[in-house]
Amino acid sequence: VSSCATCDGFLYSKKHVVVVGGGDAAMEDALVLARTSDKVTLVHRRDAFRASKILADRVQAHPSITIEWNTIIEKITGEILDGGDDVDLDSAQKVVTGVILKDTVTGETRQLACDAVFVAIGHSPNTKFLEGVVEFDPEHQGYLKTQGRSTRTSVPGIFAAGDVSDAIYRQAITSAGSGAAAALDAERWLSEEGLGNEAAELEAELLAELLADKSSEQQTTHD
C-alpha cells in the first residue's frame, strides 16, 4: 500500500495495481503506473471524475487502465511472508493480494486480485494552525504562499519549507532541498535583523572569561 506512484511504481512492473481516487493526483498516478504495470484499475466512488478534463480523457482512453465507477474499497487483503505461529505482525513482511470492492449504488461486494494499492485521494498540509497568521496560496488550498523563489512567507521571520508550500512535487528529496533553502533564508534574515545565536555568543563569552581567569592564575603562579 503506497501513496506515491512515482516512488514505488517501478516495484510493480508487469503486475496489476489499483489506484484509489478521482482527482488530478489519481489520474497522474494511474498514467504513471500504466507505463510499467500490466493493468491499472482505478477505483472511484462517484460516476464522474473531479480531475481536469484533459487528464480524465487520457485515463479513460488508455488501454491498460480499467475504471470502477461508483465503487469504494471496503477492505485490502494480504498475506504475511514467511510467517510462523509466533510472528510479530508489526515487523513481519506483508504483501497485498487483493481488495474487496463495494458498489456504492447496489451495496454489492466482490473481490479483486491485485499486487498493490496506491492511495491518491489528495493531500492536506498540516498548516491549519497558521490560518490568520500568514498568507495562503489562493490557487492551492491549505498551502502556504511564499515570496518569489524564496521560502519567505508574508510574515517576516516565518519561513515555509517542504510540503506545506509545495503543491506540485511533494517528494522527500524536494522537501529536503527546500528545508536547506529555508535554513539559509532564516540565517540571512537573522543577520539582516542584527540577531545572532545568543546561546553561542554566551558560550563564547564564558569560554573567554575562563581562559582569561586561567591565564591570570598562571601569571600569578609565575610571579
Account of the 3D structure:
- The protein has 223 residues and is α/β, with parallel strands linked by helices.
- The chain is built from 5 helices and 7 strands; from the N terminus they run H-E-H-E-H-E-E-E-E-E-H-H.
- It has helices at 5-8, 24-34, 53-61, 172-192, 198-222; strands spanning 16-20, 39-43, 65-68, 71-80, 94-103, 109-113, 116-119.
- The strands form 2 sheets. The chain has a 4-stranded parallel sheet.
- Helix 2 (24-34) packs parallel to helix 3.
- The protein starts with a helix and ends with a helix.
- The relative contact order is 0.11.
Please write the string of helix (H) and strand (E) elements: HEHEHEEEEEHH
Query: How confident is the prediction overall: mean pLDDT?
Result: 90
The helix-and-strand class reads alpha/beta
Largest sheet, if any?
A: 4 strands, parallel
Please name the defining characteristics of this protein.
5 helices; 223 residues; three-stranded antiparallel sheet; elongated
Quick description:
This protein is an alpha/beta fold. The chain contains 5 helices and 7 strands, in the order H-E-H-E-H-E-E-E-E-E-H-H. It has helices at 5-8, 24-34, 53-61, 172-192, 198-222; strands at residues 16-20, 39-43, 65-68, 71-80, 94-103, 109-113, 116-119.
